[in-house]
Amino acid sequence: MFDINDIRSQFPILERSVYNRPLVYLDNAATSQTPRRVVEAIEKSYFETKANVHRGVFSVSQEATELMEATRTRVQKYIGAAAREEIIFTRGTTEAINLVAATYGGTFFHDGDEVIVTVMEHHANIVPWQLLQSRVKITLRPVSLNEKGEVNMDEYRSMFNANTKFVAVCHTSNVLGTINPVKEMISIAHSHGVPVLIDGAQAVAHERIDVQELDADFYAFSSHKMYGPTGVGVLYGKLKHLQAMPPYQGGGEMIDQVSFEKTTFAEPPLRFEAGTPDFVDIAAFSLAMDFLEEVGVENIAAHERELTQYATRRMIEEIPGVRIFGTSEYK
Fold first, then answer.
1. Rounded CA gap, 21 and 14, in Å?
2. What are the b/e assignments for 33-50, b being 16+ CB within 10 Å?
3. Tens of pLDDT along 166-221?
4. How far apart are CA 179 and CA 308, in angstroms?
5. φ, ψ for residue 138, nearest 5 deg
6. Do the Cβ atoms of 275 and 294 come closer than 8 Å?
7. What is the rounded (10 degree) CA torsion for 293, 296, 300, 303?
8. Element at 264 (helix H, strand E)
9. Could you give the CA distance from residue 211 to residue 126 in angstroms, rounded to a whole number?
10. 153/189 Cα distance (integer angstroms)
11. Bridge-partner residues for 236, per DSSP?
12. CA distance 75 to 69
């Protein structure tokens, strides 16, 4: 598939020794390591093109703006979005989900409405909806899992009713590794007129994502799980939803006109990007996507499956009484 030694050579941290052994890093579900090219791009930006974006007419500011906006276009193409205006930069998946809960949920949910989630959700896709409950008396309804760690789809289908207003589910579980049938889940929700947010933090570095093919209303993910910089996330949203949502935060960049009497707001995506963004790391994120495409997410996924099968087999054979949680074939 690829030269593993060549891949390792691109990550300086793998030259370290821990406990007198070469470092083996297996915590990509929490954060991935970063190839040299991404770090070098960050250094280059700090040394050559550090100027605030979207607000300077001088050359360095224009260059920094172009680098950041080129990454927006890169992300649009990477996930198959219809328009670059549908790509919002955040600090990570967590902020992206909080943004949707606070703005979409805070605007369109009413007392008695229900939000469907699953038992396998990360805290970042549970707590934002619970925080919203202090403003609107919504109910969270978690779908159960079967013994393999898969969503009980019959139960999911039965949960929709007149009060169901939203579905928020992970694409891939960060604990079980289960890949949910999100396209089917979205189709079911849409048949009831219910929009869907997908937490894609664990999926984007392991499979090809096409948000239009999925028909997702919102899709959230993080750079740092894609071999990119920390502190950069993406919220994809269908433009019709973003245009109907109020700002998440106020400040510079997200405004159209400001006066002490009234402020009007910019169109998406800038409406949701208040203040100075992390334009240096956003620009470097583009290099991480280059790395992913060069290696091939299919190759990465195949290598991970091989490692998982090997580790699972060895644990079952050599550790008496071990029990494996998450035995779905969809992983």
1. 11
2. bbbeebeebbeebeeebe
3. 999 999 999 999 999 999 999 999 999 999 999 999 999 999 999 999 999 999 99
4. 14
5. -90, 165
6. no
7. -160
8. strand 263-265
9. 22
10. 12
11. 87, 219
12. 10
Cα–Cα dist 224/209, whole Å: 17
What is the DSSP code string of 106-149? HHH--TT-EEEEETT--GGGTHHHHHHTTTS--EEEEEPB-TTS
The per-residue pLDDT for 329 is: 83
122: tokens are: 């990360």
Per-residue pLDDT tens over the stretch 36-74: 999 999 999 999 999 999 989 999 999 999 999 999 999
Is 197 strand, coil or helix?
A: strand
Nearest-angstrom CA–CA distance, 167 and 142: 10
Q: How buried is 287 (Cβ within 10 angstroms: 0-12 exposed, 13-18 middle, 19+ buried)?
A: buried
Domains of the chain by residue range: 43-288
pTM of the complete model beyond 0.90: yes
For the chain, percent of residues with pLDDT exceeding 90: 95
CATH architecture of 43-288: 3-Layer(aba) Sandwich (3.40)
The 3-state DSSP class for residue 267 equals coil
**Helices 297-318 and 279-295, packing angle to 10 deg:** 80
Long-range CB pairs of 189-194, under 8 A, 24+ apart, other chains included: 189/116, 189/160, 190/215, 192/160, 192/164, 194/116, 194/160, 194/164, 194/165, 194/166, 194/167
Query: CA angle, corner 167, sides to 166 and 169, nearest 5?
Result: 155
Q: Are 229 and 42 in contact (CB under 8 A)?
A: yes
3 state SS of 261: coil
Half-sphere exposure of 12 (CA within 13 A, CB side): 5
Residue type, 309: Q
Cβ atoms 33, 14 nearer than 8 A: yes
Determine the Cα–Cα distance for residues 179 and 118; give it in Å rounded to an integer.
13
Q: Token pair 């001088």 is at which residue?
A: 58
Q: Which tokens is 43 given? A: 């250094």
Sheet holding 218-222, edge to edge: 87-90, 233-237, 218-222, 196-199, 164-170, 114-118, 139-143
- How far apart (Å, rounded) are the C-alpha atoms in residues 100 and 197? 8
For residues 45 and 17, give the distance between their C-alpha atoms in angstroms, rounded to a whole number.
30
